[in-house]
Design a protein that fits this description.
By secondary structure, the protein is α/β, with parallel strands linked by helices. Helix content is 20%, strand content 19%. The chain is built from eight helices and 14 strands. Helix 3 runs parallel beside helix 4. About 1% of the residues have low confidence.
């Protein structure tokens, strides 16, 4: 695959020459944006988008496009429940021929396909919001699902999939944090803790990164060494900014083939940054229905976007004293530095929110 070797970016009165490389390493594939649950914290609650499934021919086209890259992992995730796609198992088996494959799931359909995924899927991330009591996710069996997977692994003498848990902490469930180390007893090897990004005014008072739950958080962190591997978020805004999507040389392919740089910019929704409403506008660099992924990855604007984000050459809206009255903070269309899209309010870049 040949492409123009570089792009020139004017910055701070000079020029930077950016080399174009086919260095994509990880692909997040959204097999559907439909879901079989109705979590009150979900981005889907305030969007108005067409819903659909990635068809298997488009998926095969994507895999064909990936031959130009040295891909390490395909991640079935996105803003939807991947296991709802009727071709999920076939897609998993096709992808597994070439790549390491991971899945993020609410777990509802896992009992129906557990025998098919054990020994094939490399890693599974099960969403879990409480360990005792009724789950907000919409079912009460997340723990039983994890136990089932562990039992089938043992029965088949398989060490895959590695079982991980995604836990979004809020003021309602923060008292559950001390219970998380117990998950190691049922085969959980990793726990990712993330913070809530409010998608409604009602959820704003549920955030714990405002300093109000400091003792509970500190008490939990002291226990972490006793349990599985933990990936912990920040609980306050720090100066350092790091986009794991860009640093990890990743991209997101939506169910309809559109290519977005990250989860946050893959769909339209409202978020509330410390109570300030931001309308997130999806941003795409192309569609694999029309172009190869190699062509999209090396487009001038996508190469420049990744350089700007990696080096933090963009506005920092979260801690700007003018944010409340600034036009640019209303949406993600552009920032006051002239960048488009606007990443200045991204809580992922501050490690407040974390994705696998």
């Amino acid at each position: 695959m040949k492409c123009k070797e570089h792009v020139k970016l004017k910055i701070n009165g000079g020029y930077v020459i950016l080399e174009k490389r086919l260095d994509l390493k990880k692909v997040y594939v959204e097999l559907t944006n439909e879901c079989n649950s109705s979590c009150k914290m979900c981005f889907r609650n305030n969007w108005d988008e067409e819903e659909g499934m990635m068809d298997i021919q488009l998926f095969k086209k994507l895999l064909n496009d990936l031959r130009y890259f040295s891909i390490r992992e395909i991640f079935f995730g996105g803003i939807g429940e991947a296991t709802l796609n009727p071709n999920f198992i076939e897609m998993l088996k096709i992808a597994k021929k070439y790549y390491s494959v991971s899945l993020s799931t609410n777990g509802i359909l896992i009992p129906d396909i557990a025998e098919d995924i054990v020994g094939v899927l490399d890693k599974i991330y099960v969403s879990l919001d409480i360990l005792k009591g009724r789950s907000e996710i919409g079912h009460e069996d997340s723990i039983e699902i994890i136990k089932l997977l562990d039992e089938i692994k043992e029965k088949k003498s398989k060490d895959k999939p590695i079982i991980a848990v995604e836990f979004v902490v809020t003021k309602e469930n923060i008292d559950q944090l001390p219970l998380l180390p117990e998950l190691r007893k049922i085969g959980v090897a990793e726990i990712i803790i993330s913070n809530l990004i409010p998608t409604s005014k009602e959820l704003v008072n549920q955030i714990v990164y405002d300093g109000g739950e400091k003792k509970s958080i500190e008490s939990f962190i002291q226990r972490c060494f006793k349990g599985p591997r933990y990936i912990l978020p920040e609980f306050k805004i720090r100066s350092e900014r790091r986009c794991n999507f860009v640093k990890g040389k990743s991209t997101v392919i939506r169910w309809d083939g559109k290519v977005s740089p990250c989860y946050r910019l893959s769909h339209s929704y409202r978020e509330y940054i410390f109570g300030r409403e931001v309308n997130v506008i999806p941003h795409f660099f192309g569609n694999i229905k029309d172009e190869s992924l190699a062509e999209i990855w090396t487009r001038d604007d996508y190469v420049i976007f990744r350089y700007v984000v990696e080096n933090s050459f963009y506005a920092s809206c979260i801690d700007c004293k003018l944010a409340e009255g600034c036009y640019y903070t209303l949406t993600t269309l552009s920032d006051c530095f002239g960048n488009s899209p606007n990443c200045g309010d991204c809580l992922w870049s501050r490690r407040i929110a974390i994705c696998p």
